[in-house]
Amino acid sequence: MATKISSILIANRGEIALRVIRACRELGIKSIAIYSDEDARSIHVRRADEAYHIGPAAASESYLNVDKLIELANRVGTDAIHPGYGFLSENEKFAEICERNGIIFIGPKSNAMEVTGDKMKCKSIMKKAKVPTVPGSDGVIEDVDRAADIAHDAGYPVLLKSAFGGGGRGIRLANNEKELRQEFEMASAESRAAFGKSALYVEKYLERIRHIEFQLIMDSHKNGRHIFERECSIQRRHQKLIEMSPSPIVDKKTRERIGEIAVRAAAAVDYLNAGTAEFLRDQQGNFYFIEINSRLQVEHPVTELVTGIDLVKLQIAIAQGEEIPFKQEELKMHGCAIECRINAEDPFSEFAPSIGLVPTCYIPNGPGIRVDTYLYPGCHVSGYYDSLVAKLITWGNNFEESRIRMKNSLSEFAIEGINTTIPLFKTIMDEQNFIKGELSTDYLERFDIINKMNEDSKKRSKKSSSAALATVLLHSQFAKKGGRIISNEAAQANSSWKKVTGRY
After folding, report:
1. pLDDT band at 327, cuts 50/70/90?
2. Fewer CB near the last or first residue (10 Å), C or N of the chain?
3. Fold of 135-204
């Protein structure tokens, strides 16, 4: 039964909060923002129809405080909550509390979220649904000796992974039994620190793999669609850096086959709303399902640009009980989109966090260029939250056009006051293996990209110094000639404009 949503509380901050606010405006839905002490001057606070203080700067006391959020939602009488990504977006208990309070959670139901959040339970369900999974343990391993036995059967190297992990946390590589025993305790401790519990499983480490995900949308009428793939292989410490659609190695036949598997995987856990089926592709072309991310992804804009579908508006429509408005066969891909995640990190100092005032910034624009960001001149980048400050997305009729637009946009993108990952992306856009599509999750290490970035930076610095010297010399000559560099007659002679009735 359809329920018209008239107001949405956005349980998030930064660029994703702004993204949801824009969708609400287009739909005529009241947007309600929240903010911590740290975000009082954030732009999403000003853009929302209403904004409410939620607590101190620490996320645990503000954006992660379920009791405060529910109390506020009930007090202002909101119809729905959009969790964005990060924070509480994949917290099944939060979704359940929303359901109990009669608040629409714009995402999957709590029971589906509980299953997708438990990687072992999810893996078991996928096996029954004949969805291919990575070789390894069939359940959680709490004993290091048992982990060693499974690793021996699967063959080294293996990964130790937290069953409750995400975003690359709780993952350790072991090349032999000695390393496995050393890393087991460290992985357990890391999992406890990040998720409050330790539950590890063993998974065969696939070398030279590509990370490819499929965008999913499922409605309450049992309809499911995949909205094509995104290539997410360029990563650092299991964190995605660059995403693109289409993938350079996914042809039409593969897209249809793996897309059907992705929809089957979502149906197997009774999934609802937007989500992403994540796959690893080995060098032989085999795809292995690894997980369903039960939320809107950071990289959703690349899918929007190649399909013309507004995923946030579609999320809201599904949450209202509407059917998906298109058939699978009606979906088409147009051109190529690339996204670079601009993080407030110093790539020249091992990606150390960079925080502080941004006195000025220049955001690139033009045909085929999209920037999702919360930056503005005078804003403050906080150390309390995720380092993502902007997403630069370019679209072109083909990969090369999108790449050139990205390269030029990165050169134009200026953020003063903090260090960002822009220099890394500048190097990648010109790197031949990237251009050829020779991608893998170890791309940075495999092709020594960080050292190439350092060399590129030195060259740019030298070029910039030469240009500055030339400018000084030009100004010196200008001053000596009394401010006259070229005569009027010479200017007219060299002008590309033609005389028309005595005028230029």
Report:
1. very high
2. N
3. Dna Ligase; domain 1 (3.30.1490)
